[in-house]
Amino acid sequence: MKAHPMAGDCLIAVVLAGLELLALLDPPKGVHPVAFWLVGVGLLGPLVVRRRDPLLSAYLILIAGFAQLFTHGPSPTGGADARIRLADIALGVALYTVVAYVGRRQGALYVLWLAIGTAVWAWWRLGPAEAILPTLIIVVIFALCWVLGEFAGARRAYHTEVERRLDLLETERDQQATIAVGAERARIARELHDVVAHAVSVIVVQADGAAYAVRSQPEVAEKAINTISTTGREALTELRRLLGVLRSDDTELDRAPQPGAQSISDLAERVRAIGVPVRLDVAGDLDDLPAGVGLGIYRIVQEALTNTIKHAGPGASASVRVARVGDRVELDVTDKGPGRPHGITAEGGGNGLIGMRERANVFGGTLQAGPSPEGGWRVRAVLPVSTA
After folding, report:
1. TM spans, by residue (predicted)?
2. Dihedrals φ, ψ of 254, to 5°?
């Protein structure tokens, strides 16, 4: 009946109509058969659409109920046959429907009309003396219909609110999933940028050097080509790891060993191998840093040295200092070179500086990048360890 409300309402009307047929065994006196059936149809017919259009159905039933006051007149013996028809139950069903599906205000107005009709029926057809008991029965029936309507309306409102909250929870879950996907894409994009930018910068510099020295200094060219090969293999390994995470839902792929603070010395050595002197100063214990903080420190240093290779020019040098002080890690990368004239105010339009700041912000840290008072460029970051 919930899935097909009209079918259920038709069943109610048919059952009441079947019970109404029993009245033909003792037909009411003083009532024309045609009027009897017309009023019956008027009372039971609108029940079919009571949930599709509650108010229309209820007032059609009410009109049939008022018509019954005039069609069911006095009997031939001079009295009045004022029995309550089974079809009159439709008035109570209509009251229940209005209260449950429309609201109390419309229900109260409908009760007022029912009270007027009941009073007219009792006074006109029965008289004051005989009307007390039937009127009390009708009042009890209508009161029961009101209570049932209130209960059904409260249940409908509760289920509607539950469904609304479930929809909100599903929407919130979808939004959180979208945010998580966006954050993961941003993380992978940062990783790809750092890996590719560093590797390509090293490869370009080494390729230029090899092309210049291939005839006059073949041993230097061979060393540069070896560096290109090593750097390319390392970059390809990291790219395969990142792309493997994108292609698979298996979280084990994301647990592959990643560079950390301990790998900064290897990074500095690779940069020295391409001809950029790097002075590395590490203070404090960096071995027990959280994996995320260690990776963030490594990537910031990698991006800073990549920018040195790209922008500082020939003869550039860099200084890297990583120190753990209490519950924070301080990172300082400075460089000097002919491509870093004193007083420079901008770092170019790449995404490297944005990526470094994002990595610092992820862990609640800060990052400052800009020209150094002594000339060149300086990147300084502070990453807290306790909140990582």
Report:
1. 7-25, 31-49, 56-72, 84-102, 109-126, 132-149
2. -80, -5
Pairing of strands 317-325, 278-283: parallel
Q: Is this model's pTM higher than 0.70 or not?
A: no
The position carrying tokens 């007027």 is 116
Measure the CA–CA gap between 367 and 348, rounded to whole angstroms.
Answer: 17
**pLDDT for residue 255 is more than 60:** no
**Minimum mean pLDDT range among 86-90, 251-255, 352-356, 358-362:** 251-255
Domains of the chain with CATH codes: 5-130 (no CATH), 276-388 (3.30.565.10)
Backbone phi, then psi, for 320, in 5-degree steps? -120, 130
Q: Which residues pair with 368 in a beta bridge?
A: 380
What angle separates helix 264-273 from helix 218-247, to the nearest 10 degrees?
A: 140
| Residue among 290, 269, 293, 289 at smallest CA distance from 279 | 269
Beta bridge partners of residue 165, listed in sequence order? none
Average pLDDT of the chain to the nearest whole number: 80
* Residue 350: φ, ψ to 5°: -80, 180
Q: Is the pLDDT of residue 318 over 50?
A: yes
Total residue count of the chain as it appears in this document: 388
Q: Which residues are 332's β-sheet partners?
A: 321, 380
Of the candidates 173, 62, 162, which has an alpha carbon nearest to the alpha carbon of residue 114?
Answer: 62
Contact between 376 and 312 (Cβ < 8 Å): yes
